Amino acid sequence: MPREWDLIVVGGGPGGAAAAAVAAVAGLETLLLERGGTLRHKPCGGILPEITEELIEEVFGATLPPEVLAEQWELRLRYTPPSGEANGGRVRESRLLNVKRDHFDQWLRDRAALAGATVRQNARVSDIDVDGGFSVSYSQRGEERRATAARLVGADGVHSLVRRRLAPDAIATKMLVGQRLVQVVGELPADFHCVFAGMLSPFYAYSVPKGGLLKIGSGMTEEERTDLMPSLDRFSKWLEQNGVADLGKVVQQEGWAIPFGEQQLDAAGALLVGDAAGLCNPLSGEGIRLAIESGQLAAESIIETGARSPVPDYRNGVAGIAQMVAALHRIVLTTDDETREQFVAAELARP
Length: 351
Ligand SMILES: Cc1cc2nc3c(=O)[nH]c(=O)nc-3n(C[C@H](O)[C@H](O)[C@H](O)COP(=O)(O)OP(=O)(O)OC[C@H]3O[C@@H](n4cnc5c(N)ncnc54)[C@H](O)[C@@H]3O)c2cc1C
Hints:
Layout: E1 5-10, H1 14-25, E2 30-33, E3 47-49, H2 52-60, E4 69-80, E5 89-99, H3 101-114, E6 118-120, E7 123-130, E8 134-140, E9 143-154, H4 161-166, E10 174-185, E11 191-195, E12 205-210, E13 213-221, H5 228-241, E14 246-259, E15 266-267, E16 270-272, H6 274-277, H7 288-305, H8 311-333, H9 337-349
Parallel strand pairs: 1-2, 1-9, 2-6, 4-11, 9-16
Antiparallel strand pairs: 3-5, 4-5, 7-8, 8-9, 10-13, 10-14, 11-12, 12-13, 15-16
The structure holds flavin-adenine dinucleotide.
Flavin-adenine dinucleotide is lined by residues 10-16, 33-36, 40, 42-48, 124-125, 155-157, 161, 177, 179, 217, 256-258, 274-276, 280, 285-289, 291.
């Protein structure tokens, strides 16, 4: 049966936009379906390690424009161990980029469209049939539609419908991450501040200046979900007691999840990327760069393998990222305050 598209990408976050951009530049007829509208909101710290700049240029063919950068767009990384601020400090050579995530994602989708992909927003995928290729059902502005393609990339995030439909038995444990945007009395802290202390969170707590406010966040297990917002209360108190910031009114509060543990790199011949595949750093919560990298690798596998299945090539290409995430997950599982203390000391001692 003839297919309308060479490739359908489900999800227009960083992973999906990257896959669509790379595929379209190579001449593949590419359809990107994103359920959100323009400037769709994604709960996120919006922090990128410096090396992401180069990756973005390579994948999207342009440097980040000023309108996607937060006011304090260049930050340093600050670590604090369980024993407190006195033993914390700035990590050397740690330049981070601070982006306005909703504008950032929209810019990535726009770049994918400029590369030649057809980008449909407000297009929610509801079902997928596998019939030698892929038949994708979606609704757009109240209209039920269907599109067919030879290849499918699932880039639809931590709660991926592509993964749930095509690999229904796959387990997908999550870490919950809560965030608050808070007014600050006096000066905003200048760093991306990561605090590792069991009394705050079993994973991490962080603060980042954003648009004249302070964004604070913390991670929690699914079992301890009722402690997510209380952990933000504890962290707020910690920030004040440690003299980091004097907090005022809470402007916004939200929660979302990141994958935590299991990985599913493909399902029924479709390739999964980013959070949908379980590729997010569980130690730091960093996932944007890994989503872009895996999206790029998925598209390259599809381009290179032509009529053959891209699955073995993709598994091979993404193995380095998958192994790194798995190794960090093992570390996080055995972390306690003693190892957190050692980790921060080692990071701060690095030349
Ligand atoms: C609170 C929080 C803070 C974080 N902070 C950072 C940070 O500072 N730095 C960092 O690097 N990472 C951070 N992360 C992780 C990061 O947000 C993710 O790893 C990253 O967004 C993964 O990109 P993705 O493209 O795989 O998925 P997503 O960004 O989740 O994109 C998936 C897209 O698919 C769309 N979609 C979903 N279902 C459908 C459907 N059925 N049909 C059509 N479209 C669909 C969604 O609307 C979405 O746009 C944070 C995560 C959380 C929860």
